[in-house]
Amino acid sequence: MDILVCVKQVPGSSNVKVDEKTGLLVRPKKGNKLNPYDLFAIEAALELREQYGGTVRILTMGPPQAAEALEECLWMGCDEGFLITDRAFGGADVLATSYTISQGIRKAGPVDLIICGKQTTDGDTAQVGAETAEHLGIPHLSNVTRILSVEDGSVVVEANQENMIVKEKIQMPCLICTDSEVNTPRLPSYRRKKAMDDSLIHSFTLNDFEDKDNTHYGLKGSPTQVQKVFPPEKSTSRVMVEGSSEELAEKLGKLLSERKFI
Fold first, then answer.
1. CA 99, 101, 102, 106: dihedral to nearest 10 degrees?
2. pLDDT given at position 73
3. pTM for this one?
4. Which of 122, 133, 172, 189 is deepest in the core (most CB within 10 A)?
5. Pick the CATH number of 2-216 from 3.40.50.620, 3.30.1060.10, 3.30.465.10, 1.25.40.10
6. Contacts of 59 (CB under 8 A, 6+ apart)
């Protein structure tokens, strides 16, 4: 069973900067981490490999330092990693990002099951997984909370879909997005870190893809453009009110009304 997990490196702090001209997140070269939701996807893949055999490969898109995220996945037990990196991919929205990832998956070779985390902590769109599957023309399901079995060329899962829990049997190849309820991720292995071979990580650029039209990638391939982004102003000011219960209720009600909370 060939499994591929899509991961992403995200800022390790909420104190991030935004380029006022482009509206894009300024990604630091240091202080990044593996997207927390991707840890559950990796664990799900490793558990499936332990039960049914096969391989677990990982793929990410980002600047060169994003290879650090792949290294952590290898320390957890994954077999091989792919880094999609090229200046032509910079500034991509969810549509261009998912198309780029789909091209990377095609380049990586045949796969039975693609697993993604629920969402990323920097964009929080939860759209890239489903859009990647659409570009690949394969079935997909989001918010997977349990992977029950693999049988007859299909994967059987449970997923939290709005007001109900559904059980689905999805024909492979397919893509699923796992929720944080699916498992408890294992820790990276120090022994694997010391023994890791750098040749296990491969890089793809635009020239490696079947579709080399740069208008399909990055800012040029993004139909949505951010008009304005700015960090919220931080304030430590506070208001103290005193009095009886009736006086406090009146003062708080007036304060909330003045600030248009009610």
1. 140
2. 96
3. 0.82
4. 133
5. 3.40.50.620
6. 4, 5, 6, 7, 81, 82, 83, 84, 101, 104, 105, 108
